[in-house]
Amino acid sequence: MRVRVRGIYATALTRLFLDAGHEVVQASPSIRRRFDADLPAANHDVAVETTRDRQGVGVEGRPDAVETATDLLGDVGIDAFVWTDSTPTGAVFDGRVTETFGGGAAVDLGEESGYIPYDNADDYVETGDSVRVQVAEATSPWDDDRPLLDGEIRATDGLATLVRGREGTTVETRDDAAGRELVGMTELLGADAPDGWGVRWHRAATEAGMDALSDALARASDRAKEIDAALESKRGGADGPTRLVSGTATAWAWFGRESRFSLDARRRDVTTTIHGHHRIKAAHEAASAGVDLAEALCETASGSEKGSDFPFGVATDQFGPAEGDAVRIGHGKPDGRLVVLGEGSVVGRNPDGTISVRREMSPGGTYDALGVEREAGDVALTKFREGRWWYPTVYRDAEGERKGTYVNVCTPVECFPDEIRYVDLHVDVVKHADGTVERVDDDELDDAVEDGDVSEPLAEKARAVAGAVERAL
To answer: What are the Cα distances from residue 36, in Å, to 15, 33, 43, 329, 392?
Structure first.
C-alpha cells in the first residue's frame, strides 16, 4: 500500500512502513532528506497523521489499507491502542439539530453527535431542523470535541477532492504558476469528474506525474458516483438521523510511554534522536520545537552542515520563515533609516537556503532603473540567501511575461522569521526585458562614502559585488 505520513511521529513511522514493505509517498522535505529511498509524489491509499494533542495518530483511507496500517501501529508497543471510528471522515448523514450555540449547532447523527459551524451550513439552522451533513473532520475517541460537520458534500481520494454542486478546477497552492499548469493538465487526463462535481487538487498534486493525477481523479470520481447513487436511492428516507453514505475508513492509534520509546528506537536508526524524543514532543508544542532544535544542533556539531559556522537550515527549520509564511522586506539605509519594501509570501525554500518571496505589486509609477510601469496584476519574485551580498527580484506582468530583473547590492542578507534584513549599499544592477544589462547608482554610493555613512572598504566590497553580478548577467 501507499502511505502518506505527517506529524511528530513521521520519521519513525516512515521507517516502520518501509520496513514492512510498503511505499511512503508525498513525504515532507525533511523526510526526503533523511531517507535513502524512493518517496514519490504519488496518490496515497492511507494517510497517517499526528493528532492535535500529539498523543497518537489518525488513520484514514481505503478500508484494507487502514486495517493493514492499524495492525502495524497496534504492534508498535505493549501500550499502543487502536480504535475504529463510528463517524468516519466523509460519511454523509441526514441528522437533526439538537442544540444551538454562538458559532454553530450540535447535530444528532444517530450513534454520535457532531458539530456544524454556521458558516458550514447551507442555510439557517435551529433546534429541531433536519440537515444533510458530511463529516469533514473526525475526532479521536479521547478528544472531547464532536466531529466537525459541513453542508458541502465532497469525494476525496488521495491527491484529489471533488466538490458536489461546484464547477471547474481549483488547486490548493500558493504557487500560481504551478496551479495554472495543473489546471491545464487536468483537461488532458484520462479521467473526468462526474457532472455536477468540481475538482479541487491538493497541494501535493503539483509535484505528481500524469499517471498519479489520473489515478487520483479516477478514484475520486468513482467515490463521487457512489455518493450520487446513495443520495438518490435514499431520497425521502427515514425521519430520524440516518447514515446515507459510509465515509473513508477512519481509525485512531494511541501511543503510551513504552510505544513512544519504541518509536524513538526506530527514529534513531534514521537520524539523531535523543532519549525520550517522542515522550518530550508529546508534552507540548514548545517542547517539540526544543527537541528538534537540540537534535539538529547535535547533527550540525557532528558535521552535517560542513563549511558553515552558522546552522542556517537548523534555525529556519525551527523558527522560520517556512513556506507559506508572510515576511517583510526590511530595506535598511546607510544613514540609519529603515524602509519596509512591503510584505510577501514565502513560496519556496531550496536546500541551499534560498528563500523565495512573492509579492503582488500595486499599480502606479515605474520600477526603479527599469523604467517600466507598475501595472495591476504585476508580481515580484525575490530570492534571498542568508549571507549573500546581493539578491535578485524578477518582475512579471499579469500574463507571466518578464518586465525586468533588479539585483540589489547590500550587506549580507539575514532571513529572520518575520523579516528579511540588510542595509542597501546603493549601487545596483538591472537587466531589462530586452536583455540589456545596466549598472546604476554608483554616484549615490560615492555620496554615501563622502557623507561618512559608508566606509571606503565597504564601498569597495559593494563595487566588487556589483561588478561580479554585472558580468554574470
So the answer is: 11, 8, 20, 37, 34
Q: Which helix (H) or strand (E) holds 291?
A: helix 285-301
DSSP-derived secondary structure for 298-330: HHHHTTTTTT-SS-HHHHHHHH---TT-EEEEE
What span, in angstroms and rounded, lies between the C-alpha atoms of 319 and 34? 20
What percent of the chain clears pLDDT 90, i.e. is strictly above it? 62
- Please state whether 435 falls in left (phi above 0), alpha (psi between -120 and 50) or beta: left
Over residues 416-421, the mean pLDDT reads 90
| Contact of 105 with 99, CB cutoff 8 Å | yes
Q: For residue 294, is it left (φ>0), alpha (ψ between -120 and 50) or beta? A: alpha
- Residue 465: other Cβ atoms inside 10 A: 19
Is pLDDT of 300 > 80? no
* Residue 123 predicted with pLDDT over 50: yes
Q: Are 307 and 396 in contact (CB under 8 A)?
A: no
Are the C-beta atoms of residues 221 and 66 closer than 8 Å to each other? Answer: no
Which residue type occupies 39? L
**158 within 8 A of 219, measured Cβ to Cβ:** yes
Residues 310 and 318: their CA atoms lie apart, in Å, by 14
DSSP state of 450: H
- In 10 A of CB 420, how many CB atoms? 23
Could you tell me the three cell numbers for 125?
A: 439552522
CB-based burial label for 38 (10 Å; 0-12, 13-18, 19+): exposed
